[in-house]
Design brief:
mainly alpha; 41% helix; binds iron/sulfur cluster
Length: 143
């Protein structure tokens, strides 16, 4: 596919949606690091490497099934950057963005999704961190 081709054209060339069923979520990128797309009419850029079509939205399912943190520490063990997702999530949920950024280095999170994948309590950690990072950046812009 050429840069500038619409995602919808790429999907059509790949055979379209299986069984013609509308998916619940479409990700620009892979299942771990891709971001949700609201439309397939966007053009493909040179850094786009995949289009993932999901029949079910795993984030919505996780939001329904999540429980309180079990304090098992598994997320802390698997973070490739040595961050502490358990504490970052607690800070983000309390909206303690100062702690999230300055004490826990939450802005270093590369949204790899490993902590979310391993969490037995099905807590959507990576999504929480993306929101917290966006909030920190928005506050910086506001001054
Ligand atoms: S999503 Fe962020 S906090 Fe979680 S494992 Fe990846 S880098 Fe670490
Ligand atoms: S893996 Fe999930 S349940 Fe375990 S400490 Fe981390 S957030 Fe809590």
């Amino acid at each position: 596919m050429k840069v500038g081709t619409q995602f919808s054209e790429a999907l059509e060339a790949a055979g379209g949606f299986a069984d013609g069923a509308e998916p619940e979520k479409i990700l620009c990128g892979g299942p771990m690091m891709g971001f949700a797309m609201s439309s397939l009419e966007a053009a493909i850029c040179k850094n786009n490497n995949a289009l993932t079509v999901l029949r079910e939205d795993p984030v919505s399912i996780a939001m329904e099934q999540q429980t309180a943190c079990l304090r098992c520490g598994r997320c802390n063990q698997v973070c490739p950057l040595g961050l502490t997702p358990q504490m970052m999530a607690a800070a983000a949920e309390r909206k303690d963005y100062e702690r999230f950024e300055k004490k826990l280095y939450g802005m270093e999170c590369v949204a790899c999704g490993t902590c979310t994948f391993i969490c037995p309590a099905k807590r959507p950690l990576m999504q929480l961190f993306k929101q917290a990072k966006a909030e920190v950046m928005a506050r910086k812009r506001r001054g």
